[in-house]
Amino acid sequence: MIVALPRNPMHVHTADALILRTYRYGEADRIVVFLTADRGKKRGVAKNATKSRRRFGAALEPLTRGRVSYAERERRDLVRLDRIEPASTPFAATTGRDAASAAHALGHAAYFAELIDEWAPENSQNDRLFRLGASMGDALGHGGSIEALARYFEYWLLRLEGVYPGLVTCPQCDRQTLGAGAVLVAQDRAYVCGPCAERQPTLGREAMAFLKSLGRRTPSDVTTVAASAEALREIEHAHHRLITLHLEKELRSSRVVRELSPS
Ligand SMILES: [Zn+2]
To answer: What 3-state class would DSSP assign to 257?
Structure first.
């Protein structure tokens, strides 16, 4: 007797993608979470990726950008990841750096990838997020200040989500006072001027000027801006709070990055 089975054919796709995260799946396979340029975030099974490094090799490092081939069935969450041809890997960011600084760079690649993973929509295109992530991988490889690049990335990520606080006008007094310094007021998710917050600004004049400049900078030129370590640290604290507020959780890699930071 011949039974007609309902058909659910496989569709094969090839796309530019960013690797966001991988984890073990059974004995030999890995699940790879990747962001495609055209169809959003996907989860794929990479068969034998744990045992055979030949097919995927170093291409599974978070923030690797490359060409992926995968097969998908309708109504299935997991795709089958067949191939990754890396165009750039975060290991490029380690050349010319000493061991500690190379670990710092790779830690940031993982941090950027984890934040993209948190914000990327499943199965729907977000071209600006994809391009931001791809440009971060390239900029890490160009050397320069990783701290400045990280603050740039956080700023743009929050801005693309439409949640970056205003940098000019204080929402409490409605005056353009923020250039002189600001305090992040968590319950309002806003920067407020010192007099309104009744506190010394935690983001000084330099930090505010640096933040204002980010809207017109590129990832590679931000790494060469002479921003003081203090201003970058003030921004780091503010961004860390904003990200935690919006994600309502602490990221794994952000703790790792802070532990790795050269003091
Ligand atoms: Zn004010």
So the answer is: helix
Give the CA distances from residue 75 to residues 35, 37, 41, 42, 78, in Å, rounded to whole numbers and listed in that order.
Answer: 19, 21, 15, 13, 9
Closest Cα to residue 33, out of 140, 102, 133, 139?
133
Q: Is the dihedral of CA 141, 146, 148, 152 positive or negative?
A: positive
Residue 56 φ/ψ, nearest 5 degrees: -110, -30
**Distance (Å) from CA 199 to ligand 1 centroid:** 11
In degrees and rounded to multiples of 5, residue 262 shows phi and psi of -65, 130
Count other Cβ atoms within 10 Å, centred on residue 219.
21
* Count of positions (residues) in the chain: 263
Helix, strand, or coil (residue 76)? coil
Weakest mean pLDDT among 46-60, 102-116, 204-218 = 46-60
- Distance CA(128)–CA(132), nearest Å, equals 6
H-run or E-run covering 135:
helix 127-140
Residue 203 Cα to ligand 1 midpoint, Å, equals 14
Q: What angle do CA 69, 74, 77 make, to 5 degrees?
A: 75
Q: Ligand 1 centroid vs 167 CA: distance in angstroms?
A: 12
From ligand 1's centre to the CA of 147, what distance in Å?
29
Q: Classify the C-alpha dihedral 160-161-165-168 as positive or negative.
A: positive
Regarding pTM above 0.85, the answer is: yes
Tell me the pLDDT band of 259, cut-offs 50, 70 and 90: low
